[in-house]
């Protein structure tokens, strides 16, 4: 893994080692996940940048996940990819405000809450495999970034897509979801599937002793 300063040669080496277009995901405990990523200002040539995006997309799909930040593959640049095919039941999608999110590239993203409405739901992370926990986040956020072409993006994102944007942007600031999760909600993925995969975490909150409307 790269970490620290961004080396173009190191990025190319990582990409060259991809198997089937997929590279390993960095697990919690690696310093690259706890450092503020470097703004992307064209450090990579167009070919390398394009290949990086494709590898990130393939790695996200292979995991599988709905987002991946560059530090999660050891590259400390402020770049993330997101995509949600929304493969959940209609009731879950409605309650969680989860809608299909086309593939997008976020370069140097930042977000700010819009309004006071919040929502608490279970989240997982590809860098913290095997666990899930409830995180209360703003239900709407203002996303400001650039896309892969350099076009400026300034829009309001709602529901589950807002959660994905916030989760991946947090990665670029050295923050993992477990830092702001309700710790009493922490569960293994197996136990989540067995006991707590309701559309909302309210039953889990009563049983485990946490309040989903508290923001940390």
UniProtKB/TrEMBL annotation:
InterPro entries: Peptide_deformylase, Peptide_deformylase_sf. It is an enzyme of class 3 (hydrolase). Keywords: Hydrolase, Iron, Metal-binding, Protein biosynthesis. The active site is at 168. Binds 1 Fe(2+) ion. HAMAP family: Pep_deformylase. Removes the formyl group from the N-terminal Met of newly synthesized proteins. Requires at least a dipeptide for an efficient rate of reaction. N-terminal L-methionine is a prerequisite for activity but the enzyme has broad specificity at other positions. This is Peptide deformylase.
